[in-house]
Design goal:
The structure holds 2 protein chains of 2 kinds. By secondary structure, chain A is of the alpha/beta class. Chain A has 12 helices and 9 strands. Chain A has a single domain (2-270), classed as TIM Barrel, CATH 3.20.20. The chains are: A alpha/beta, B alpha/beta.
Chain lengths: 271, 409
């Protein structure tokens, strides 16, 4: 968890760029290379998506990638393997991102221990809301794995207070910009209110707060960052760049260009 | 029975495993259940609709010729009664839940209804309720089910609903539910998601069981009136398990009534092609609740298989998981072939064509009766949840039962 805490130093001007990709799309080895390419192009935090057969919080783009990844041997075991390979080559913090059933089937404590030994820093379990996460949080934090909570536009103040109570186990908070699934393209105006909400969540929870869902371009990333959010999460746009590349070279170039442009936009927003 | 403070746990099962965006909507629905649905005024309005529109109470039909066909000597199976949900408006028990939920949604101020459907019966029921209450209705249905339940697709469209064909995953009920959840999370402020089975995140399993409990409450009264006693067994098919839980709710506290659920064994529970999580699955989390399900060691949900679209689902409602673990209910399974054979038997002994889902329960009546009669030392009186009629399955039934190879049925 240390690496992730260090990635969000108090009072830092640098806006954090969190990049998501689905491990196993197009195959596990290439996912490792693509994740490293994200770091080289300016990503601060890697989200490694563990593909799940029924990704109900994800839109078409990530759902399709998940199906491709599972067909290519992706899953929890492969995601942990990829994490381990990435850790050997970079100190960038890694968040394992996925759904609860694979973790439940493996066993919460067993998963947390494997995640820690693979060099992961935190986990984000989309369908495990704070109210259902008490046991999991104990298992994860016991192994040194942080728990990233989601806050949505529909979240209550009580929810944000519950997050504040567990702040020590949460290196950052993920603000979901829109009520919806991943992969949309938010209207710029709605991003403004999402960024404002993220700032408010940061003030109330005491944790750095990044904004995700619907941020697919440098322009959108910069808009959110300039308004005060601590950073952005970009997922579907990266998955789309991978989907569109016909060769591994093309995929790497596509991801590098996109992440580079997001980084540049965030630098401009911060200056 | 005030369970307003109920937290959604059935023993170790149930709960609420959803993304944060939906927590608010589930809280809102939970409040509406206690503040609107449990009120006398709502119940009176619902009862009125159930009697004047749905056609309740449904009859309890004694099936003497079927009983003798299944057990000629009558040593195991004494009297057999069918709780005739097939005679509900729209042809299955699904309308009990749909009318109740759409009425509730209207009172909550929701302006749009979505639903998932497998066999199409819940989709038709929801489309019907939406037509009755004047609300727009969008029904998600797996592409494979759209093809094999074409008559119900036509019905939904005629009723004014939009049917959205789902092409992801296994293209059946599970994937329809995924898409419905995606729609709901996107339109959560205006939209009510009318879940069709006693599954999903809290409060759905309890809401649906409560609305379906009318089946068991009526059946209990009717059998007492007809026989002067409670039955020895109640049996129903289980996919998500709403008709079974509705029937069971009438008898749960009467320990002398043994409860049986019948899952879809597809090609057989010892093959990979079945839909029997209670019989051959493991515990996990799918579609918002913890229960038994079909998944691999990596936690990926496996595709279910059943000839019956309504049972073709890799999960099951959490209360059934609890009833299984506590031993209050026993869960059996029937194969595609057994269900088809049961269709033919009842059609030709009682003049009733069952839904393929219902036929799974029919296929295990004798086994349940044999087990129970051994325990009680006399022929058993059995009540079957006759969940739906077979019109929608006619093409499948004809293809399998009127060809020479199926003549053995």
């Amino acid at each position: 968890m240390r690496r992730l805490v260090d990635a969000f130093p108090a009072g830092a001007k640098r806006k954090r760029l969190v990049t998501y990709l689905c491990v196993g799309d197009p195959d596990v080895d290439e996912s490792v290379e693509l994740a490293l390419a994200c770091v080289d192009a300016g990503a601060d935090v890697l989200e490694l998506g563990c593909p799940f057969s029924d990704p109900t919080a994800d839109g078409d783009t990530i759902a399709r990638a998940s199906q491709r990844a599972i067909a290519a041997g992706g899953g929890l075991t492969a995601t942990l393997r990829a994490c381990e390979a990435i850790r050997k080559r970079t100190e960038a913090p890694v968040v394992l991102f996925g759904y609860y059933n694979p973790i439940f089937v493996r066993g919460e404590a067993a998963f947390a221990a494997s995640a820690a030994s693979a060099g992961a820093d935190a986990s984000l379990v989309v369908d495990l809301p704070v109210s259902a996460a008490a046991d999991y949080r104990r298992a994860a934090t016991g192994a040194g794995i942080g728990v990233i909570p989601l806050v949505a536009p529909t979240s209550t103040d009580e929810h944000v207070r519950a997050i504040a109570e567990h702040a020590a186990s949460s290196p950052f908070v993920y603000y979901v910009a829109v009520a919806g699934v991943t992969g949309g393209s938010s209207a710029l105006a709605s991003l403004d209110s999402a960024a404002d909400a993220a700032v408010s969540v940061r003030e109330r929870s005491g944790r750095p707060t990044v904004v995700g869902f619907g941020i697919d371009s440098g322009e959108r990333a910069a808009r959110v960052a300039a308004r005060g959010a601590d950073g952005v999460v970009v997922g579907s746009a990266i998955v789309r760049a991978i989907e569109e590349g016909k060769t591994s070279d093309a995929r790497r170039r596509g991801v590098t260009a996109l992440v580079g442009s997001l980084r540049d936009a965030l630098e401009r927003a911060a200056s | 029975m005030n369970r307003a403070s109920f937290d959604g746990s059935y023993g170790a099962y149930g709960g609420r495993y959803v993304s944060e965006t939906l927590v608010f909507a589930l809280d809102e629905l939970t409040r509406a259940v206690s503040e609107i649905l449990l009120r006398d005024a709502f119940q009176a309005e619902l009862d009125q609709l159930l009697s004047t529109y749905v056609g309740r109470p449904t009859p309890l039909t004694e099936a003497t010729r079927l009983a003798r066909a299944l057990d000629p000597s009558g040593a195991s199976l004494g009297r057999l009664f069918l709780k005739r949900e097939d005679l509900c408006h729209t042809g299955a028990h699904k309308i009990n839940n749909a009318i109740g939920q759409v009425l509730l949604a209207k009172k909550m101020g929701k302006t749009r209804i979505i639903a998932e459907t497998g066999a199409g019966q819940h989709g038709v029921a929801t489309a019907t309720a939406c037509a009755l209450f004047g609300l727009p209705c969008h029904v998600y249905m797996g592409e494979e089910d759209v093809a094999r339940q074409a008559p119900n697709v036509g019905r939904m469209k005629l009723l004014g609903a939009e049917v959205i064909s789902v092409r992801s995953g296994s293209r059946t009920l599970k994937d329809a539910m995924n898409e419905a959840l995606r729609d709901w999370v996107t339109n959560v402020a205006t939209t009510h998601y009318c879940i069709g089975s006693a599954a999903g995140p809290h409060p759905y399993p309890e809401l649906v069981a409560r609305l379906q409990s009318v089946i068991g409450v009526e059946a209990r009264e009717q059998i007492l009136e007809r026989t002067g006693a409670l039955p020895d067994a109640a049996i129903a098919c289980v996919g998500g398990g709403s008709n079974a839980i509705g029937l069971f709710r009438g008898f749960l506290t009467a320990k002398s009534v043994r409860l049986f659920g019948v899952e879809a064994a597809g090609d057989g529970v010892d093959t990979p092609r079945h839909a029997a999580p209670l019989t051959a699955g493991r515990v996990g989390v799918l579609h918002g609740s913890k229960s038994y399900l079909l998944c691999d060691d990596e936690g990926q949900i496996l595709e279910a298989h059943s000839i019956s679209a309504g049972l073709d689902y890799p999960g099951v409602g959490p209360e059934h998981a609890h009833l299984k673990d506590t031993g209050r209910a026993r869960y059996l399974a029937a194969t595609d072939a057994e269900a088809l054979a049961a269709c033919k038997t009842i059609a030709q002994t009682e003049g009733i064509i069952p839904a393929l889902e219902t036929a799974h329960a029919l296929a295990r009546i004798y086994d349940a009766a044999a087990e129970v009669s051994q325990a009680v030392g006399r022929p058993a009186t059995v009540v079957v949840g006759f969940s739906g009629r077979g019109d929608k399955d006619l093409a499948t039934l004809l293809a399998h039962l009127v060809t020479p190879e199926a003549g053995r049925a």
